[in-house]
Specification:
2 copies of one chain form a homodimer.
Chain A lengths: L9 H16 L22 H5 L2 H8 L3 H9 L5 H19 L2 E4 L1 H13 L11 E5 L5 H4 L24 H8 L3 E6 L11 E2 L3 E2 L1 E2 L2 E5 L5 H8 L5 E6 L5 H7 L2 E4 L21 E6 L2 H13 L24 E4 L10 H16 L3 E4 L7 H12 L5 H10 L5 H6 L11 H24 L10 E4 L16 H9 L3 E8 L16 H9 L9 E7 L5 H14 L4
Helix pairs in contact in A: 3-5, 5-6, 9-10, 13-16, 13-17
Chain lengths: 551, 551
């Protein structure tokens, strides 16, 4: 592997980054046998593991919940190294199938696993648990100071750039005994709801390679959707955890409680709307585990923008009251999404919950998007466009979409910025008032909103051009969790040919749908709580899943 | 009283505002007798009430704590109207003595009092309690929708401007049964640590009219320092509650828990540093009462920037550990301030507390100020300078000081703003780390810092040119309470003639001091807690005052 210094063109630099990744994958041992070559990959990657991995590897990576696996590790009924090797190999397979990795930490993970196995006593809440991470987060501290870590955040201009400084969140996980083993892809600008960059190309959905795994944490979702990881760290500012989690039928949680100290992201210091890391997991308990461990380190003592509050589990003393948002007044969800809402709402009702409609047409989510899209880029996108220009890499279509094609985006004066923040706060206040009013006139106030995390199942590549179903909650700063509900069934999810789209976005989304295109793709739902009622959202999710017949 | 419409010059408009104020004061009945005319006012106003008010008025306004007076009101041992009239008359006297009011709410307060007296049962946590308020806050909702309220925020350009919209905080107090009775002055731009405007002139200190009552809530402090009010609402973004409270020896508390919905302030939507209303009171319990009542309304459900947290009283289970900041590394406090620190620290030590030094020279408070002063005016001050220009009123020297004379102030690009916010966050992180490190090596972590709220007692007019002792905690977003400690005693507080100032600010402050100039002026101290440890600050204040021999 050559040095980066002599490379001139953006293609050479991107090629260098991919060569680094490939070299990290070449360490896999034993080599993966029986993986189809790139041109012969099946549409769905779900059957590949059984063909490639050993029964024991399948058992380790598939047959345990996170809690169960942690229990086995802590009781030393299974070696950390054996678990690490199984996930490393499965992650390598996930990479072959979906192109989700920027680096496999083969040597580092095995060294770490051996160290943990050598301890006289298992230590830490995450003892031996493999954790995958979004690349731009970096992880210098956790990987030890002698390891040179580079972080590009998928900008060619940053390829090969050393990641200085430590990362509070990952240091915490490290202290609690985890094993970092894989780093995952993100799209150009980290601001697409898909995952494509000029450095690593396109990440695809493990259920259907013609669909996206979502974004921006789409490397994580593809990896976890293959069970090449069972707990990963994503980040969300407009849906970047929830959209990809939804698209592969895993769990994701967006809350603003965990810090970003040590991450490499454009827009540092921008206060209009802020992103936050969070969990992406194969089961619900993983979300809570992540939060408990992350907050046990009291990150607010280090990062002074975080709320000073431990993780404080909430329990409903009576069934929660749920408001169903059937659509957001802008874009009508596809039939499988509406069916998922209907089925889950019905299950909740049967379980004794009060279920009402969340009619938000009067609240104009479109107006919310007009505010939010401007707030994403108060510099008119100058910084990230400059980074793209610096290397000469092309601007990808979804970058153009989220910067150039948003009529609201422009470089603001300070006064324009203030006015926009006032509008944002007024919008938030109005929404909060609407929520409070559900409790007027002797009614019980709504506990959570049940809504789509996207207009449908995973979208075909290049078509993630409507953010409203996730980004709206970032605008409002409301906690939101995503969970799997069903899969697309062409027999049930028939296109409504009589529907007349309400606007151009609605038409774009309507035209996209045909049942066959999405057959068997996971369909997920989203539970949203009021601001800072993070724990209540997870408690509601417990009740909802119980109503759905899950443990 | 004429209409504003035909007035042309700024002097005429300011005159109109003063005529409005005078008309509101002319309603006082019986008229105040025995008030010296403006040219014959004594240096200290402290003996005026006994000469002007009735013994019963003195009793009502002076001889009860807030809790005690509330108890009498609730038990109906005293009429709300009698209390209101006593405070109205004393407030009018305070106006004559210190020029602290923009409006006396004579009719409104008496009408309100009569209404409360007419209720079959006393209702509300503030039943019958008179509350004074800083003018720019407005109070439309609380005063009833048919009352035309104007709010100028001391800008001539805004004189006579109707105050639309309601005010969450004041609505809450109103719902809890209070009586609003007086509105108080603030300086031009609301960004001086004194209180002078072209609308209302200069507010003076009730202990010494050659000294300032502080600012920007200096109308409140002068009024409460005269016991023309016992509980008032100020606001703080750089010391605007704490500086004036300190200068008149009352209590003040700066925390970011209470909303500003409905206030009229320049800089709406600016997120770099935000101000917040808070209590200014004659006793410590008043601070906690204010917070409890303000938060009982769950303002975070209405104003979506507020932390979702009830007021949660804190109790020390062992004596707090106190760090004394003898100076801030920039400006050496005057001798009476250092004596106050020494006496209180000594009392704390005697009461069994661990008392250590807060050595902050390495943390460079000057660097903090360089960041903060720029963050106050990311628009280079354009908005407020524009407001001043609009009417043609002169720019006052302390406005020039805080905008033109700060080398850091300029209109920022978005990227410059982001960089500055990063610097702010790094500074905050470094300070938090320093605080955490007090707990290293088996030591107990410091609970609170005890420090000066100013370099000395109240400053002579026009000389409040050093904000470091209060504004630093705004930069860090640390809660801070101010309480009275002692008074200047020329026999004890001798000038150190051998001291060599360290820099030009230090020289300015050093040169200002001579014991006689400040004789008998109140000297106050400040208790500061870590971010969001608001309740702990008040708990520490309880312990400290107990150590000082107070109840």
């Amino acid at each position: 592997m050559g040095s980066l210094v002599h490379l001139q063109s953006w293609e050479e630099k991107a090629g260098w980054a991919r060569a680094q990744r490939d070299a990290s994958l070449a360490k896999v041992e034993p080599e993966l046998g029986g993986v189809p070559d790139a041109h012969n990959m099946p549409l769905s990657s779900q059957d590949l593991p059984k063909a490639v991995l050993t029964p024991r590897e399948i058992e380790i990576t598939e047959q345990y919940t996170i809690t169960k696996l942690l229990g086995l590790l802590r009781k030393r009924k299974i070696k950390v190294e054996e678990v690490a090797r199984a996930f490393l190999r499965r992650a390598a397979l996930a990479q072959a199938a979906t192109n989700c990795l920027t680096e496999l930490l083969w040597d580092e993970a095995i060294e770490r696993a051996k160290h943990l196995d050598s301890l006289p006593e298992p230590r830490g809440a995450l003892f031996g648990l493999p954790i995958s991470t979004k690349e731009h987060h970096g992880m210098v501290g956790a990987m030890g100071k002698n390891k040179a870590v580079t972080t590009s955040a998928s900008f060619v201009a940053w390829v090969g750039r050393e990641h200085g400084g430590s990362n509070l969140l990952y240091d915490t996980f490290w202290d609690q005994g985890c094993v970092f083993f894989a780093r995952t892809t993100q799209p150009q600008t980290i601001m697409h709801l898909e995952t494509e960059s000029n450095v690593y190309g396109k990440t695809v959905n493990p259920y259907n390679r013609e669909l996206t795994s979502g974004g921006s944490s789409g490397g994580e979702s593809a990896l976890i959707g293959m069970r090449g990881s069972i707990l990963g760290v994503g980040g969300d500012i407009g849906g970047s955890i929830r959209c990809p989690a939804a698209h592969v039928g895993i769990y994701g949680f967006n809350i603003k409680r965990v810090g970003t100290t040590g991450f490499r992201t454009p827009g540092a210091g921008k206060e209009t709307i802020s992103g936050c890391p969070g969990p992406m997991t194969v089961d619900r308990d993983g979300l809570e585990l992540f939060m408990k461990v992350a907050l046990s380190a009291k990150p607010w003592r280090v990062e002074p923008s975080l709320t000073v509050k431990e993780w404080t589990p909430y329990t409903f003393t009576r069934p929660p009251k749920i408001a169903v948002q059937w659509w957001d007044g802008v874009v009508r969800p596809h039939p499988p999404m509406t069916r998922a809402l209907r089925e889950v709402a019905e299950a909740c009702r049967k379980a004794g919950m009060e279920v009402v409609d969340w009619d938000c047409e009067g609240l104009s989510h479109q107006k919310g998007w007009d505010i939010l899209s401007a707030l994403y880029w108060p510099d008119g996108g100058k910084e990230v466009l400059g980074l793209i220009k610096e290397s000469g890499e092309p601007i990808l279509p979804l970058t153009k979409f989220i910067i150039h094609e948003q009529p609201t985006v422009k470089e603001l004066t300070q006064h324009e910025l203030w006015q926009l923040c006032v509008k944002r706060d007024e919008y938030r206040a109005r929404y909060a008032q609407a929520w409070s009013q559900t409790g007027d006139g002797g009614n019980r106030e709504v506990d959570v909103i049940l809504c789509p995390p996207s207009f449908g199942a995973a979208t075909p590549h290049g078509q993630s051009r409507y953010w409203g179903y996730t980004a709206h909650w970032n605008l409002l700063d409301y906690p939101a969790a995503v969970f799997p509900a069903t899969k697309v069934d062409p027999a049930l999810d028939i296109k409504d040919l009589s529907y007349v789209p309400k606007n151009s976005q609605d038409r774009f989304v309507y035209d996209m749908y045909s049942p066959e295109r999405f057959r068997n793709a996971p369909v997920s739902l989203q539970v949203v709580g009021r601001r800072q009622e993070d724990e209540k959202v997870l408690a509601a999710l417990v009740e909802i899943e119980r109503a759905m017949g899950r443990a």
